[in-house]
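Exam prep: given the inputs below (a chain plus protoporphyrin IX containing FE), describe the expected output before reading on.
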Amino acid sequence: MTDTQRLHPTGRLVPDELDEAMVRAVVDAFYARARRDEVVGPVFNRVIAPEDWPAHLDKIADFWSSMLLGTGRYMGRPMPRHIAIPELADTHFQRWLTLFRMTVEELCPPAVAALFVERAETIGNNFRIRIAQFRGEDPRQLKLMRAGTAL
Ligand code: HEM
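Solution:
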């Protein structure tokens, strides 16, 4: 280990290659794809008005910057936003995660892509558990979801 390695507040290392520009590129590419996608696109396009997309992308970039670079820029609470989407189902999460994995594997070096994917899978599975609880379903019936490599 060298003394130039950056530390995230959780104590994890931030990969050298990861910076704000890479976070932004991932966010822009992922949502450009997600908005056009036949599975997740209709959900995004119903909830987020066209004029609200720039602010949404800024917020998501803040989120990933906080998650992976430890900047603390995101102060929101994503869980209630997802609980409030009644049509959200496992098919959406599976597609979201796979599109996300394809995007980060295209744009990032392997260690950075793996970090994005691991964090997205953890958050996605937490959302699924909380949504199931909110809907009065048994979260123990859920199977761990991983991001696929192809649609
Ligand atoms: C799997 C991992 C996911 C992550 C890490 C994630 C992350 C986020 C974050 C950080 C926000 C911003 C919340 C805020 O306003 O502060 C957000 C909003 C949103 N997400 Fe997700 N999300 C995930 C899955 C999904 C899925 C599967 C869908 C459905 C297609 C979805 C649809 C949305 C929508 C429509 C909003 C806007 C909500 C609103 O403004 O009311 N997300 N997401």
